[in-house]
């Protein structure tokens, strides 16, 4: 895709790009005995979802498969050609492809911790160090908070590691169990990223069809926002912020109203929450755009008006996944430049402390 | 112009009663320290009769997650419907949002009679 004059003005910070590792690429970063469990014993990540992603080519855009046949997202030069150069990204934030997904392992925490370290090293060496536009996410094995903190201390000071991804499982993040992780996050100016994963958190377990699960992703995000706010995480860790990735943002006005109403009625149950939940959300949480529902400009702007802010939403493509949003096509036409600047770059730059230097450079 | 609404001994500290003041239904509360406070007997949220609620205490704001420090026993008027909390010793302001308050009336005790004024 050739750049047009219009495209060059974007200054895009893309808050959700999925790089993909193949297991053999992790082997140089693994010690024994973990290495041989992949090499000799054929370890693979445990899976839970009963569906395939029933798009043209599964989870990925059909045109994002690397020309030599490797999986989409696994080749930096091809990602540069198809995404970063074609769109004209200023910054792309890598969020992993959840395979391996150390925090999703329901046992063998030592292997999970080794995989998280290997993945972080692979990510730094093959992506962050090779393209100045790319920033990364720290992967941890949250099942063992002590090892998770050690891993954050090991790679958290890397100038291009900007957030920590936590597991989507049966223990919500407001639980004090996670406090050592949040403490380490604050220490290294890392934000918390929530990207939905399997298994889901909602009543009824797995629905029968993928379309149901995919429709209800925001339910898991709402669960986590509600949990983090009412469990006082942001009161205890005032520098901590959370990026809600790939849940969209159109549920936010509803959730703010609902939480504020509940707070007025039930404040006494959570006396450690000392402000209106919507105020806490506006100060500590940011939401990525994708997957955008198709909206008119009027509907789109009403959502921001109801949130009381246009500074807590950041654009994301979700490349190379099938429900990718194009920065040039996904937003309703006719938005003013000020709002586009906020969505495309300013809000993300203000959210991540390690992107603040970009302000001076631009 | 004041109106006598009850005898001083009709309420013990921490108790409340429904009464009238002119055309208004009011709730008269006697705080833990023995002072009297009167409010319009209508919650600002959805109009519930506050006199059917509870005069009780509330957990104080805290910096510690999981800590309940129950304070102001007898000074918090809790709505019978949604449980919203109003501090009778702070002009009837809502604990969750002090910008909001129930309408209050002045109260004096004279010759053992509790008198409500505008």
From TrEMBL, chain A:
SUPFAM superfamilies, per the entry: Metallo-dependent hydrolases
GO MF annotation terms: carboxy-lyase activity; hydrolase activity
Keyword Magnesium annotated: no
Gene Ontology BP annotations: secondary metabolic process
Keyword Membrane listed: no
Keyword terms: Hydrolase, Lyase
GO cellular component terms listed in the entry, alphabetical order: cytoplasm
Residue ranges of every copy of the Amidohydrolase-related domain listed in the record: 53-353
InterPro entries, per the entry: ACMSD, Amidohydro-rel, Metal_Hydrolase
Protein name as catalogued: Amidohydrolase
UniProtKB/TrEMBL annotation, chain B:
Pfam families noted in UniProt: Rieske
Keywords for this protein: 2Fe-2S, Iron, Iron-sulfur, Metal-binding
A GO term for molecular function: metal ion binding
PROSITE patterns referenced in this protein's UniProt entry, alphabetically: RIESKE
Domain Rieske: 3-116
Name recorded for this polypeptide: Rieske (2Fe-2S) protein
Source organism per UniProt: Alkalicoccus saliphilus
């Amino acid at each position: 895709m050739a750049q047009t004059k219009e495209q060059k003005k974007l200054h895009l910070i893309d808050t959700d790009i999925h790089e993909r590792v193949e297991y053999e690429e992790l082997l140089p970063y693994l010690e024994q005995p973990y290495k041989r469990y992949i090499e000799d014993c054929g370890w693979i990540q445990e899976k839970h979802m009963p569906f395939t992603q029933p798009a043209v080519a599964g989870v990925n855009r059909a045109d994002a498969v690397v020309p030599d046949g490797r999986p989409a997202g696994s080749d930096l030069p091809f990602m540069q050609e198809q995404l970063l150069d074609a769109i004209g990204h200023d910054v792309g934030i890598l969020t992993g492809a959840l395979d391996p997904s150390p925090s999703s392992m329901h046992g063998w925490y030592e292997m999970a911790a080794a995989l998280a370290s290997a993945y972080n090293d692979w990510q730094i060496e093959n992506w962050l160090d090779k393209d100045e536009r790319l920033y990364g996410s720290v992967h941890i094995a949250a099942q063992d908070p002590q090892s998770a903190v050690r891993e954050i201390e090991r790679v958290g000071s890397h100038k291009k590691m900007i957030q920590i991804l936590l597991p989507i499982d049966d223990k919500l993040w407001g639980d004090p169990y996670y406090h050592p992780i949040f403490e380490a996050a604050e220490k290294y100016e890392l934000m918390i990223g929530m990207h939905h994963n399997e298994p889901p958190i909602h009543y009824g377990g797995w629905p029968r069809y993928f379309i149901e699960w995919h429709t209800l992703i925001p339910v898991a995000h709402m669960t986590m926002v509600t949990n983090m706010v009412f469990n006082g995480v942001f009161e205890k860790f005032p520098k901590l912020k959370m990026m809600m990735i790939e849940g969209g943002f159109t549920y936010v006005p509803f959730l703010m109203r609902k939480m504020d109403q509940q707070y007025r009625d039930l404040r006494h149950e959570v006396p450690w929450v000392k402000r209106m939940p919507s105020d806490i959300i506006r100060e500590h949480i940011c939401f990525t755009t994708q997957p955008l529902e198709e909206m008119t400009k009027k509907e789109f702007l009403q959502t921001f008006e109801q949130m009381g802010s246009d500074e807590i939403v950041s654009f994301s493509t979700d490349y190379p996944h099938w429900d990718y949003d194009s920065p040039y096509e996904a937003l309703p036409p006719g938005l003013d430049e000020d709002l586009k600047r906020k969505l495309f770059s300013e809000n993300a730059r203000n959210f991540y402390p390690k992107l603040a230097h970009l302000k001076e450079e631009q | 112009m004041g109106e006598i609404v009850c005898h001083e001994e009709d309420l013990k500290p921490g108790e409340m009663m429904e009464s009238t003041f002119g055309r208004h239904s009011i709730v008269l509360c006697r705080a833990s320290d023995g002072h009297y406070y009167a409010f319009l007997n209508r919650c600002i949220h959805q109009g519930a009769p506050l006199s059917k609620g509870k005069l009780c205490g509330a957990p104080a704001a805290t910096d510690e997650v999981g800590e309940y420090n129950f304070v102001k026993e007898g000074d918090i008027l809790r709505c019978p419907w949604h449980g919203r909390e109003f501090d009778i010793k702070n002009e009837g302001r809502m604990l969750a949002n002090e910008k909001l308050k129930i309408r209050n009336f002045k109260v004096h005790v004279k010759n053992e009679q509790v008198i409500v004024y505008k």
